[in-house]
Amino acid sequence: MRQQIEQLLPDSIEQDLAFLEEARTQIKTHINKNKRQELLKYISTDYFLRQRDREEQLQTFLHGEQSIKNH
Q: Domain range spanning residue 33?
Protein backbone atom coordinates (compact mmCIF):
# COMPACT_ATOMS: atom_id res chain seq x y z
CA MET A 1 0.00 0.00 0.00
CA ARG A 2 2.86 2.38 0.81
CA GLN A 3 4.33 1.87 -2.66
CA GLN A 4 0.98 2.65 -4.26
CA ILE A 5 0.74 5.90 -2.32
CA GLU A 6 4.33 6.86 -3.18
CA GLN A 7 3.63 6.27 -6.86
CA LEU A 8 0.68 8.66 -6.70
CA LEU A 9 2.69 11.48 -5.15
CA PRO A 10 4.51 13.86 -7.48
CA ASP A 11 8.30 14.16 -7.26
CA SER A 12 7.84 17.72 -6.06
CA ILE A 13 5.84 16.76 -2.96
CA GLU A 14 8.44 18.11 -0.50
CA GLN A 15 8.55 21.51 -2.22
CA ASP A 16 4.76 21.58 -2.53
CA LEU A 17 4.29 20.93 1.18
CA ALA A 18 6.86 23.57 2.11
CA PHE A 19 5.12 26.08 -0.17
CA LEU A 20 1.71 25.26 1.31
CA GLU A 21 2.98 25.61 4.87
CA GLU A 22 4.45 29.05 4.16
CA ALA A 23 1.38 30.10 2.16
CA ARG A 24 -0.96 29.07 4.99
CA THR A 25 0.98 31.23 7.44
CA GLN A 26 0.81 34.21 5.09
CA ILE A 27 -2.88 33.68 4.36
CA LYS A 28 -3.73 33.54 8.07
CA THR A 29 -2.18 36.98 8.55
CA HIS A 30 -3.43 38.72 5.41
CA ILE A 31 -6.82 37.26 4.48
CA ASN A 32 -10.06 37.53 6.42
CA LYS A 33 -11.68 34.38 7.70
CA ASN A 34 -14.42 34.36 5.06
CA LYS A 35 -12.00 34.19 2.12
CA ARG A 36 -9.30 32.12 3.80
CA GLN A 37 -10.80 28.68 3.20
CA GLU A 38 -11.53 29.41 -0.45
CA LEU A 39 -7.96 30.55 -1.10
CA LEU A 40 -6.43 27.62 0.80
CA LYS A 41 -8.49 25.15 -1.23
CA TYR A 42 -7.49 26.84 -4.48
CA ILE A 43 -3.75 26.96 -3.84
CA SER A 44 -3.72 23.30 -2.82
CA THR A 45 -5.06 22.15 -6.19
CA ASP A 46 -2.73 20.31 -8.53
CA TYR A 47 -3.39 23.01 -11.13
CA PHE A 48 -2.11 25.79 -8.87
CA LEU A 49 0.80 23.81 -7.43
CA ARG A 50 2.12 23.08 -10.94
CA GLN A 51 2.24 26.78 -11.86
CA ARG A 52 5.81 28.05 -12.21
CA ASP A 53 4.84 31.44 -10.80
CA ARG A 54 2.76 30.15 -7.89
CA GLU A 55 4.61 32.33 -5.36
CA GLU A 56 3.92 35.45 -7.40
CA GLN A 57 0.29 34.46 -7.90
CA LEU A 58 -0.10 33.93 -4.17
CA GLN A 59 1.27 37.40 -3.51
CA THR A 60 -1.26 38.95 -5.90
CA PHE A 61 -4.06 37.19 -4.01
CA LEU A 62 -2.66 38.32 -0.66
CA HIS A 63 -2.48 41.94 -1.75
CA GLY A 64 -5.95 41.92 -3.27
CA GLU A 65 -4.68 42.47 -6.81
CA GLN A 66 -6.40 39.35 -8.09
CA SER A 67 -9.44 37.30 -7.20
CA ILE A 68 -9.78 33.52 -7.30
CA LYS A 69 -12.94 34.03 -9.35
CA ASN A 70 -10.77 35.33 -12.19
CA HIS A 71 -9.22 31.87 -12.54
A: 2-70
